[in-house]
Amino acid sequence: MSKINSSRMSSRKLWFGTSAIVGRLSGAIISAFTTRSLHLDTSSGLLNLPAEMLVIIMSHMTRTDLKSLCETCRSLQEIATAELYHTVDLSSHNATSTSKSRETYQMSYPSAHHVPLDFLKREWTSLDHETFQRQRQFINSMAISPAHGKHVRRLHWTILDVNSRTWRWRGSGEDDWDLDARGALYEPEDEPLWTAFKRCTNISHVDICWIRPWREVTLPPPLFPSARSVRLSGCMTRAFVSRVLEPSSQNLEHLALVNLLRWSDGAQSLPQFDHISALNDYLYENNAEEELEPPSRLMLGALDFLIGRSSLTTLCIGTLGDKSRNGDADPRYDELYSSWSRILNDSRCTLQRFCFDQGVEIYGHGRPQRTVHKQREADRLFSKWILPVLLDSPWPLLRRLQLKGVQSLIHEGQFIQLDNAETQLPQIDLEISELLSKTLPEGASISVDAWASREYEQIYYEDMGVPF
Q1: Beta strands of 211-364 (E only): which ranges?
Q2: pLDDT tens track for 412-444
Q3: Do residues 158 and 190 lie in contact, with contact meaning Cβ atoms separated by under 8 Å?
Q4: pTM for the predicted model, two decimal places
């Protein structure tokens, strides 16, 4: 397999012929095993092609064609299987479609509000149902053929359960919430999923979004030690995040957090439990769920263990910016932005791309208005924690800087401390870009935009993710 793996990289260069030739070869091989007009045995000239050429041909095939090839030609089965499992995309959260929100505040609007598919509080879609069934098939295939896991290089996965309990608003005034319990919550439990993940031993890219309405039933073992790129979104526990990030911390190059939330914790540290049912019993016996510490949905401290251990080249952070302007800042938000500033500063010598996207909720249609007279709390936090790190000292490798959703970055006349000297920062985005350009290499791309790239989810209540 080492020959196949090493040849995959060079194969993408299309070193033999043109893409048109490859397309014709692909069509010929598909037609051959579909019509059975050619016996694909070891004497066939097709099998004498270099492994690199075979990989190119198979990369043009659909998954259905690859499955058929695995069943038809035993001699090509190994290469076809590697290509078939190279990218496993069993996600719904990356789709461009939307779904109806299930948040209570949306009910005051005449028409249902539609939200992105990485939102936790939304209705299941047909894509979710299809994805859930395909995930079951993948888990079963990993149980039957564990060796196939070594071929997986890229994994996109939405943790969901379309049979979970859902709430449907009927708007009748009585019994407004209808509990739909069409399936057992924990059948099967999480172990089959963790086992399937554990068998993917050569993964380089991981993209996981947790939108299931409860936390993990049992914690997984450490996962994906070979991952170089990790993207996390949805709502997770800190323990789960550590099981994904810590094993790969030495290899990690690309990290993206897309409004990553966490399940609530108690005001006091909770004991560790092997199963969610034991946690539920503890909460019930100790009334711990009534002592939640808001706003504990913030994913605090999840990246601190990466400091000094990773060499990030890409860091992307998307977050729901606090749009309040009343000055009543919660210190936990300062803690969150401070943690991001620490990992950003730690990556100064290796970072090549930094993207910070500070979104706001959008009610109905239209865009949020830019405010120039009074800062939002989100912009104060950005100016206090992120901007000083960007302006403090040079970034030798940073070639692309994107700052989105940063409205009215700096008040007119506001001062921040830089290099032990007070420096007045202007309010105009263009002048901010000029200041940033002084710390970046010549020719680096800088984009400062008052508008966020998308809408992000706000959770208005505490939830420990224990649905009993």
Answers
A1: 229-236, 254-262, 314-320, 353-359
A2: 444 444 444 444 333 445 567 888 999 999 999
A3: no
A4: 0.79
